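User: Fold this; tokens only.

Assistant: Input:
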Amino acid sequence: MAIAYNAPPRSRTRLANKLTDKVEHPLHVLLAEDNPVNQQLALELLQMRGHNVRIAENGKEVLSALEREPFDVILMDLQMPVMDGFQTTAAVRERERKTGAHIPIIAITGSAMQGDRQRCLDAGMDGYLCKPIRSRKLFETVEQFTAV
């Protein structure tokens, strides 16, 4: 009897399949990220799940994109040129005070210092992800905002 020691357990196989399944209700995601490698990773992961993604390389581009089309959620890098994630979030929230709308903003940061998450929430963001981006955590965080 041959035993395949390198074969993944069924639970890992099911999890991998679950992570690559398309979502029933795709989201329109605005990815605010200036790093091309991080852009590509997040873009591929989100598209693999069936989400539609637009990329903005800085906060000014985020504000322009929001004027042109509606989004279900924003993934916001905190350290971008022109306008950082905190400045951009403040500008988005200021616009929302006038319209009464609310778009979820999820911070993405390479900094995982104690207090960073709370600082983002206090600044008006709705969620927090640390880099490097992990597919399961990305999907869980973004998809909690699925409008069903």
